[in-house]
Amino acid sequence: MCLAIPGKVVEIKRNLAKVDFGGVIREVDLSLVDINVGDYVLVHAGFAIETIDEEEAERSLDLWRELLEEEETQNS
Q1: How many domains does the chain have?
Q2: What is the mean pLDDT of each run of 10 residues along the chain (76 residues)?
């Protein structure tokens, strides 16, 4: 199973980008995509694998938030 997380590109330097995953910034390899600052990408295993539009990214992030909240509730 492959799991990709959406994030917003906030900075690009050569083949690396800083990507914001809802307040958590991580460095991501851009070798597989052509993107610009402000674009949204799906990231798997440290690589941006696909660009997505903002609406799709927000829907996906909302689902992640719901899952995490449910997990926290179950573990409380």
Answers
A1: 1
A2: 88 97 94 96 96 92 86 85
Task: Specify the CATH number for the domain of residue 15.
Answer: 2.30.30.140
Total-model pTM: 0.82
Domain that holds residue 9: 5-74
| Burial letters 25-57, b for 16+ CB under 10 A, else e | eeebebeebebeeebbbbbeeebbeebbeeeeb
